[in-house]
Write a structure and sequence with these properties.
This protein is mainly beta. Helices cover 14% and strands 47% of the residues. It is built from one helix and twelve strands. The protein has one helix spanning 138-160; strands at 2-6, 15-19, 25-31, 39-44, 49-56, 63-68, 71-78, 87-89, 94-98, 103-107, 113-122, 125-132. The strands form two sheets. It has a seven-stranded antiparallel β-sheet, with helices on one face. A five-stranded antiparallel β-sheet has the order 1-12-11-10-9, with helices on one face.
């Protein structure tokens, strides 16, 4: 399944939409305006909450917990490295690729690719192309991709200011 997001995934905590290949809105990504740490929720277009991503703030490096149906499914922590970004996921999931360019993929505990994201720079907005290869793990793959991309964009915004 292929999805698209047109905008930065995080920009002053607003709402963004995930579109399918036909241009139809499929999911809404919503971040809280005022909160300690990032809190992002993925809803369907009827308002049903599917995934919740929460940044834990009492860590040296960024750390995110991903909840599906209010159950903690995976945690993501940024590894401390001077030259490049790298992330560690729990439960055997792995990510690899070029994080700064927002081009990376997620693998499940068996090594199979669950999903990938590619940023395409167009004019003043970014366009993200998301491929989900394992429909059974679509929501988890989307949540992981959103959490890491949010973290990369936030770091780039902090470095620019």
């Amino acid at each position: 399944m292929k999805y698209y997001i047109h905008e930065k995934l995080i920009s002053l905590h607003r709402k963004f939409y995930v579109y399918d290949e036909d241009g139809k809105k499929v999911y809404e990504i919503s971040s809280k305006l005022i909160s300690v740490g990032d809190k992002t929720t993925l809803y369907d277009m009827r308002g049903k909450k599917y995934a919740y991503i929460e940044e834990r703030i009492l860590h040296l490096m960024p750390h995110y917990d991903i909840y599906l149906e209010d159950h903690l499914v995976c945690s993501i922590s940024k590894k401390f490295q001077l030259i490049k970004n790298d992330y560690k996921l729990t439960n055997g999931y792995k990510v690899n690729g070029n994080f700064l360019a927002c081009n990376f993929q997620i693998k499940d505990p068996h090594g199979d690719i669950m999903g990938s994201i590619k940023r395409k720079l167009i004019s003043i907005r970014d366009k993200y192309e998301i491929d989900i290869f394992d429909e059974k793990q679509e929501l988890l793959a989307l949540a992981i991709l959103i959490a890491i991309t949010n973290d990369v964009n936030r770091a780039q915004q902090n470095n620019a200011s």
